[in-house]
Amino acid sequence: MKPFDVYPLYDITPVKAEGSVVWDDKGTPYLDLYGGHAVISIGHTHPHYVARIKEQLDRMAFYSNAVQNPLQQALAEKLGALSGLEDYQLFLCNSGAEANENALKVASMVTGKAEVIAFTHSFHGRTSAVVAVTDNPKIVAPLNAQHQVHFVDFGDHKRLEELLATGKIAAVIVEPIQGVGGLDMPSAEFLQQISAACKAHGAMMIADEVQSGYGRSGRFFAFQHADISPDIVSVAKGMGNGFPIGGILIAPHIEASYGMLGTTFGGNHLACAAALAVLEVIESEDLMRNAAAMEPYFKAKAAQIPQVLHVKGRGLMLGLAFEAPVAPLRNRLIHEHHIFTGSASDPKVLRILPALNIKKEHIDQFFDALTQALA
After folding, report:
1. Segment (H or E) for 76
2. CATH number of the CATH domain containing 71
3. How many other CB atoms are found less than 10 A from the CB of residue 138?
4. Are 309 and 274 found together in one domain?
5. Which neighbouring-strand residues pair with 14?
6. Are the C-beta atoms of 143 and 128 separated by less than 8 Å?
7. Do 89 and 223 belong to one domain?
């Protein structure tokens, strides 16, 4: 048997990592400015994170949700306190796709409606319903295609209102900062319009914070820059710093019922220990403040590179926009300068998603390498 060959792989085999550095099997160090798709939020093998997981592993790694798990309550309380959403409810699962699937399911069950509004260039996952609300026909199988999904452009308030006015819309799902789509952001005003229109027409607003959450934007959640309160917030990637965990934060006006949602592995003891460690490090090291502080420094350095048209995104969820496709540049950065960066569905955007404790010297190293690679 061999792996199902669906990934275009670099000829690099990482075997060790610490902070923002990854070493391959030949001993070559790489500066990691991508964090495995924004997953590494507190740096690789953070000592507190490692200790937390080892301690829990010595006690008990797993039992299902058929029993009490105090770690889930501890995680919910810590997440509520740091995010400012203390009155929300937490349902835990294993990934961002599962989180968004559950968010859509809750919205449909509670409203009794079946149609959804999503946005052009969106990406919400690769499972059934979330593939349907992802604006990429290449990954939608006939089984997953759903005609109840309507795609709207950011800023098109008129079309948004027209669709919501039909009374058939269960949810509007939106990324406050698009990740795979290329770091496009709806304006704060448009996010506020979505929130108000959902309330007016009995639909639910789902903020997909799978990639933009957990302090990456400089606030705990990117939607908080618009001063709104979504009905449901989905989280995953940076939540476990590499340990698979996801979840949805559900507004207090939505009532739970037994059997409404379920999962075998979601919220298990080891996953909760990892997620608690991440929150503890974000708090103790003030990483949201660091993410906010690194943004202007990064943008000032980018302004010195003539080939960079502009910088998209905010905090430490950033994209460098160029006139030409960035694939050759990305290859030079990884093979010649040993720096991991990311791509986007927009071929002219280079994605930068480092750990939230990245330092200025890492940014300096990147821009020195970028200058050489462009030359």
Report:
1. helix 70-83
2. 3.40.640.10
3. 6
4. no
5. 24
6. yes
7. yes
Asked whether residue 211 falls in the same domain as residue 76, the answer is yes
Rounded mean pLDDT, 124-134:
95
Domain end position, chosen among 235, 251, 284: 284
Quote the strand ranges of the chain, DSSP E: 14-18, 21-24, 29-32, 89-93, 115-119, 149-152, 169-174, 204-208, 232-235, 246-250, 310-314, 317-321, 339-340, 349-352
Q: What is the mean pLDDT of residues 322-332?
A: 97
Q: Are 176 and 186 in contact (CB under 8 A)?
A: yes
Domain that residue 183 falls in: 47-284
In DSSP terms, 172 is beta-bridged to 117, 205
Three-state DSSP at 339 gives strand
The token pair that represents 361 in the structure block:
């010297």
What average pLDDT does the chain have?
A: 97
Task: Please tell me the total count of domains within the chain.
Answer: 2
Are residues 162 and 83 part of one domain?
yes
Please tell me whether residues 86 and 235 are part of one structural domain: yes
Q: What is the pLDDT of residues 166-176, one digit of tens each?
A: 999 999 999 99
Rounded to whole angstroms, the Cα distance separating 223 from 152 reads 18
Specify burial of residue 251 (Cβ count, 10 A radius: 0-12, 13-18, 19+): middle
Query: 146 pLDDT band (50/70/90 cuts)?
Result: confident
How far is CA 328 from each of CA 34, 331, 348, rounded to the nearest angstrom?
Answer: 17, 5, 11
**Domain final position from 284, 313, 344:** 284
For 217, the enclosing helix (H) or strand (E) is: none
**What tokens does 10 get?**
């670099």
The answer on pLDDT for 324 being more than 90 is yes
DSSP single-letter state for residue 27: S
